[in-house]
Hints:
It contains eight helices and ten strands.
Amino acid sequence: MLGMAVNRYIDIDDAEAVLRAIRLTPPKKPIDLIVHTPGGLVLAASQIAHALRGHEGKITVFIPHYAMSGGTLIALAADEIIMDPNAVLGPVDPQIGELPAASIIRAVELKKPEHVDDRTLILADMSSKAITQVTSLVSQLLQKHLPREKAEEVALLISTGQFTHDFPITVERAKSVGLPISTEIPSSVYQLMDLYPQRGAARPSVNYVPLPKSP
């Protein structure tokens, strides 16, 4: 079994490290991934999610506290998501700069295009494309567990700005939409988390821990 931990914001360096670990893992070998993050770059999270989805062995994602935004995107690629009963996921709606893509589009709709400057119109066009792209990706990931129609329904729910970006998706809500959630999180996950407190100091964000094969 391969153990990995993703901690803090997810960036391109994190994606490179995780992709390397997945590449070095035998195809049928299970992967356990601990995810504790407020999110990060869509590109980086998408690369990790695609790589996990393509791995033949079972993918288990452990969420001891929270996996928001890009962290949720990664979790959706798993065969099983094991959460602390009080842990949360989050919406994956795109953010353009510091603004929600859905809100940029809504602002243009309210003011009417003829009353909006060119830069905002360009941002609205980018926002529309970003939402379409993320919704499609989420739907693809969810079809690993759900029928296509249900996957598309859930993708629209969490990708199109129906909630604020920091809205907590609880275990109960995640289960209610059909995600493969359990709450039997091992004590060893909490023990590992204690070794990586988030205090803002510079430290590696990804840790690759090769574990001996179980008998």
